[in-house]
């Protein structure tokens, strides 16, 4: 079962990659993003992609330049996530047959990203749009648009965001901080999955 949860492992070190990805996958989170401003991010992506081949979608976040897309693909990445909308990055991602999730906040950015070929939209920061803002923008976007909320979301408000039209969530520091013990990350991951599943009933 693929849950609409993306673990954002900002700052992860390659030496942590195996243990952290193991507990995430065991908990049921199979989409993992390593921001490119982490230590040796391509090494971490490669390790996790090889270790969990066929069971996960591993990718990169904070992708700002088209040239970075090919580097991520060569490391085994399947997802490209950005904090902003850069049409050249979206085009490079789709040309590489990878999934594209650009960061958006305004209606203009949302529609421009979809027109450029984005797989889904990353609303960032989610707390700035707010639940009421999501309801309003969901009303005008194509029904099939996948919208992922990132920034200020967690198990306590999954249900509220889902009711407003969120497809899923990107979870960063509420799930992982550099140096966290893998067992603690596993506990939080299971809480996230449980909260997610409650919204699906």
From TrEMBL:
GO terms for molecular function: lyase activity. SUPFAM superfamilies: Aldolase. Homotrimer. Signal peptide: none annotated. It comes from Palleronia aestuarii. The keyword Lyase applies. Pathway: Carbohydrate acid metabolism. This is 2-keto-3-deoxy-phosphogalactonate aldolase. Keywords: Carbohydrate metabolism, Lyase. Belongs to the KHG/KDPG aldolase family.
């Amino acid at each position: 079962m693929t849950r609409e949860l993306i673990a954002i492992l900002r700052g992860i070190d390659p030496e942590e990659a195996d243990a952290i990805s193991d507990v995430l996958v065991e908990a049921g989170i199979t989409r993992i993003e390593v921001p490119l401003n982490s230590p040796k991010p391509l090494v971490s992506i490669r390790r996790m992609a090889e270790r969990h081949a066929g069971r996960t979608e591993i990718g990169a976040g904070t992708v700002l330049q088209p040239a970075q897309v090919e580097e991520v693909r060569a490391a085994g990445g399947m997802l490209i996530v950005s904090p902003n909308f850069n049409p050249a990055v979206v085009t490079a991602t789709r040309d590489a047959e990878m999934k594209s999730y650009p960061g958006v906040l305004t209606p203009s950015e949302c529609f421009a990203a979809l027109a450029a070929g984005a797989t889904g939209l990353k609303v960032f920061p989610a707390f700035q749009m707010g639940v009421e803002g999501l309801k309003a923008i969901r009303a005008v976007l194509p029904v099939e648009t996948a919208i992922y909320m990132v920034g200020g979301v967690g198990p306590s408000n999954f249900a509220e965001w889902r009711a407003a039209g969120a497809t899923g969530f990107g979870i960063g520091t509420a799930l992982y901080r550099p140096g966290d013990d893998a067992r603690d990350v596993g506990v939080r991951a299971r809480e996230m999955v449980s909260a997610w599943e409650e919204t699906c009933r």
